[in-house]
Amino acid sequence: MILEALEREGVEYIFGYPGGANLPIYQHLHEHPKLKHILVRHEQGAAHMADGYARACGKPGVVFATSGPGALNLVTGLCTAYMDSVPMIAITGQVVSTQVGRDAFQESDVIGATSSVTKHSYLVTKIDQLPRVIHEAFHIATTGRPGPVLIDICKDVQQADAERVNTEYLEIPGYKLNGHVNLDGARQAAQALAGAERPVILAGHGVLLSHAERELMQLAEAAAAPVGTTLLGIGAFPVKHPLSLHMTGFMGTGWCLKAVQNADVLMMVGMRVDDRVTAKLSEFAPNVKTFIHVDIDESEMGKNVRPHIELVADARLALEAMVPQVTKVDAGRAKWLGQIDKWREEHPLRYRQSNGQLQPQDVLIDMYKRARSEAIIVADVGQNQIWAALWWNYDRPGLFINSGGSGTMGFALPAALGAKFGRPDLPVWCVAGEGGFVMTAQELSVAVEHQLDVKIVLLNNRSLGMVRQFQDDFYGGVRSQVDLTHMPDFVKLCEAYGLPALRVEKFEDIAPSFDAAERTKGPFLIDFRIDPEANVYPIVPLGKGLGEFREAPEYA
Amino acid sequence: MLEIKPKPAVAAPQTHNRIRVLSLLVVDGQNTLTKISGVIRRRGFHVRGISVGPSRQPGHSRITLQIDHGHAEADQVRKQLERLVEVVEVEDLTGDDVHNRELVVATVAASELDALLKRGAKVLSTGSDGTTVEFSGDADQVADFVNELARHGIIDVVRSGPVVMRKSE
Ligand SMILES: Cc1ncc(C[n+]2csc(CCOP(=O)(O)OP(=O)(O)O)c2C)c(N)n1
Ligand SMILES: [Mg+2]
Questions:
Q1: Which of A81, A231, A537, B28 has the fewest CB atoms within 10 Å, measured from its CB?
Q2: Tens digit of each residue's pLDDT (9 = 90 or more) over A85-139
Q3: Please, what is the angle between helix A254-262 and helix A333-346, to 10°?
């Protein structure tokens, strides 16, 4: 019954792990050859794989886990998907309905534990609820602002049979979709943007989720307004476009932060405007006279920044409505764009190149030359994540995947494997720090088992680099519990798992190692021993305003 | 026509009168109350009064909430609650012309009854350990009534949360 319903929803892959409370589902899995089940090595891996799959191909990721520890192992993965609005369906087994509340073996309150990290959740205790619930769950996960939906199904219900539900007809009275655009608001927004002396557009994940890249480009070009993206919005606007500001936020580019801090009209599209974007809230964009906020989720309006013009709508529809409303572009625009070009020259991205150590940026630059705009990069969390975001000229949507809102270490490897399942046609590269990598490294077995062509780039600095940098810069230089000298030999580890790997310590070996990786079919890991003192710049000191970003020291 | 109101850019807390009065129509279900209370806790809101009862619509309940919106913008309470699939409708009644009723049931010594009856209390039962009365009124009236009870020596008292309805024109 459950598996049939999944087939009807068009599910291709299930990432899961069996156990006592979902055995009835697994018993019938082989009768559904269209559903390909990927046995993970830890349930967190399943959730991240489904997440990477969904981000790469746009279809909801589906996860199975058993009750108790199985379901609870999903929590971090659910939260990661929830924070980044990724569509996912998690189906967890629950103890027999008559046992609920009796502290039965492997019983846990999964709804209670996950309700703050899911868009919606269901406990199914009766079979007649199930067909409707599954169909509703897919609808809710994939529409509006997407997100994970959990269905906790009692074991006895999994064994029962139910009538098919008429999937044409769905009524969820408490589920409201905001799609329509207030045309007055769109006109005002367009005119405010075009008429501004110093406009800036910031684009978030919502632009990618609603496939609004073309409309964003049209609006930016029509209004001659520069565009920065959030970490999750990377790809919404080509980095090499003359109007691009690259990435914003507390580790954004200097020229983008300068533009934001000097803008008089700021349009924020499909983004949550969280603290990583604003830094110190009271000093965020202090010269803005008109904030414009476009988001499909009404609760984002005024949650952090109070907009003067708000559009609660799908980003694509809203931008599409704005484009024809752009009339006269302010005469001072050339001056503003000229100023931004000047900031671009004055505050370039730069790094230390001459100390004889392997620099992470050199690794990424070589990688970029090979991948061009054809590969999906899945980054982990930490310095590696920000380097991968900044040192790569993303010029198409969907090529950069990372855990932005939740910042979940251990995300990259399983998410990269999921991305490869979702987009087997594209090269997939996983960029990770050694700290995050070992948090979910057991999923290497999945890569080997399915011979997934995923290349893993470890930026190994023998430390929890991002934390080390924070301690150095903002906590009096006291290095506390960030040393990772005791780690496995990653080449041997890979050998044990059954995949080829190389260690690289010198600049000259970067290119040959990538050549080897590209020649090899299937998974491949390169352990880049990078400069342990390499830092992420620019960076805004914690608690400071965006304008106070620190830059890389000038290196000879 | 959309109005453009220049407001401070930072969603600033109002320090005075942070109480919102909301009337929610919700789907009956095992998870509904947990999810509502979860949102309230997570967003830093604080419940000052709550009452739940069946609504006219089968399978749905009416929840009346008096809620402190904490450091968030006032309207965040409504918006955050509306995101829940279990919540069908949220009506913000703050500042509206409403009937706002609370109920108090109290047991007092029989000798103390007169003053209370004069205020409009109704006798529910009389026993050897005292007389039990009920009184309903708006929040201020109920508070006054409870103060009055305190002066006379209360044996036992319970108060309901508020039920609020917009006055008909
Ligand atoms: C699960 C989890 N635990 C802790 C953190 C806090 N944290 C953020 S970055 C970081 C260091 C990551 O080290 P590593 O994976 O080696 O990456 P690097 O910064 O060195 O590139 C830590 C501990 C986190 N984001 N996620
Ligand atoms: Mg590291």
A1: B28
A2: 999 999 999 999 999 999 999 999 999 999 999 999 999 999 988 989 999 999 9
A3: 140
Q: Which residues from chain A sit within 8 angstroms of residue B10, using beta carbons? A: 281-282, 284, 305-306
Condensed to tens digits (0 to 9), the pLDDT of residues A279-332 reads 999 999 999 999 999 999 999 999 999 999 999 999 999 999 999 999 889 999
* Choices 3.40.50.300, 3.40.50.1220, 3.40.980.10, 1.25.40.20: CATH for A183-346: 3.40.50.1220
**Helices (H) then strands (E): counts for chain A:** 23, 18
Residue-wise pLDDT tens digits, A522-551: 999 999 999 999 999 999 999 999 999 999
**Chain A contact for B31 (CB, 8 A cutoff):** yes
* This prediction's pTM: 0.94
Look over chain A and give the mean of its residue pLDDT values, rounded to a whole number: 95
Q: Whose CA is nearest to atom 4 of ligand 1?
A: A409
Please report, in tens digits, the pLDDT of each residue of chain B (169 residues total).
444 444 445 554 444 578 999 999 999 998 999 999 999 999 999 999 999 999 999 999 999 999 999 999 999 999 999 999 999 999 999 999 999 999 999 998 877 788 888 889 999 999 888 899 999 999 899 999 998 888 877 889 999 999 999 998 7
A76 CA: nearest ligand 1 atom: 1
What residues of A are in contact with residue B76 (Cβ under 8 Å)?
299, 302-303
In chain A, domain spans? 2-159, 183-346, 360-536
Instruction: Describe chain A by its helix, strand, coil percentages, rounded to 5.
Output: 40, 15, 40
Are A303 and B11 a contacting pair at CB < 8 A?
yes
Nearest to B2 among A182, A289, A298 (CB): A182
Q: Closest ligand to A387 CA?
A: 1
Q: Atom of ligand 1 at shortest distance to CA of A385?
A: 21
Span A2-159 CATH architecture: 3-Layer(aba) Sandwich (3.40)
Kindly give the number of the ligand 1 atom that is closest to the alpha carbon of A408. 26
Using the Cβ of B15 and the Cβ atoms of chain A, whether some distance falls under 8 Å is answered with no
What pLDDT, on a 0 to 100 scale, did the predictor assign at position A165? 64
* Distance between Cα B108 and ligand 1 center (Å): 63
Angle, alpha carbons A116-A118-A121 (nearest 5°): 105
The closest alpha carbon to A539, from A438, A466, A475, A490, belongs to A466
pLDDT at position A168 is 64
**Range B39-44, long-range pairs (CB < 8 A, 24+ positions):** B39/B80, B39/B81, B39/B83, B39/B84, B40/B67, B42/A116, B43/B70, B43/B72, B43/B76, B43/B77, B43/B80, B44/B70, B44/B71, B44/B72
Q: Phi, psi (5° rounding) for residue A512?
A: -60, -35
**How far apart are the CA of A355 and the centre of ligand 2, in A?**
19
A435 alpha carbon – ligand 1 mean position (Å): 6
Sort A547 into a burial class: Cβ within 10 Å, 0-12 / 13-18 / 19+: middle
- Six-digit token string for A550: 């620190």
| Interface touch A174/B26, C-beta < 8 Å | yes
Cα(A382) to ligand 1 centroid in Å equals 5
In this predicted structure, the answer to whether residue A51 has a pLDDT above a threshold of 80 is yes
As for ligand 1, residues whose beta carbon falls within 6 Å of it are A 380-384, 407-409, 433-436, 459, 461, 463-467
Quick one: fold of A360-536? Rossmann fold (3.40.50)
A200 vs chain B: nearest CA distance in angstroms?
A: 16
Domains of chain B (ranges; CATH) run 16-92 (3.30.70.260), 98-166 (3.30.70.1150)
Query: Tokens 């020649």 identify what position?
Result: A519
